[in-house]
Design brief:
Low-confidence stretches: none
Structural class: mainly alpha
Largest sheet: none
Distance between the termini: 39 Å
Order of helices and strands: HHHH
Strand content: under 5%
Length: 103
């Protein structure tokens, strides 16, 4: 059962990782609100799934502490994406994150 859980988390993590390339291609060049709305829905859904997984990995008896740490880090990463693309982050902070992400 743990193997299947780990595989599902890997699939979720791959989708999360692939989002960066999509952002670089679409969000940095497309000013349409529709693209931003779609992105917001995707990231929100990925965070929701991640939090569900996080509940399982936070249990004291969960054996894979490295996987739990990866889930926590990925959720923080997704939350940063929401703040960067959809929040009221100062422009200087937005530029710093974008430069770090796309270099």
């Amino acid at each position: 059962m743990l193997r299947n859980f780990q595989a599902a988390v890997e699939d979720w993590d791959e989708v999360c990782a692939a989002l960066g390339a999509w952002e670089a291609q679409h969000l940095t060049s497309d000013d349409s609100g529709q693209t931003a709305q779609q992105h917001h829905r995707w990231v929100t859904e990925l965070v929701s799934w991640g939090r569900l997984v996080q509940q399982a990995t936070r249990q004291p008896e969960f054996p894979d502490k490295k996987l739990a740490a990866r889930v926590n880090a990925r959720i923080r990463h997704l939350e940063d994406k929401l703040a960067l693309w959809h929040g009221d982050m100062p422009l200087a902070e937005q530029d710093r994150i974008l430069q770090a992400a796309f270099q």
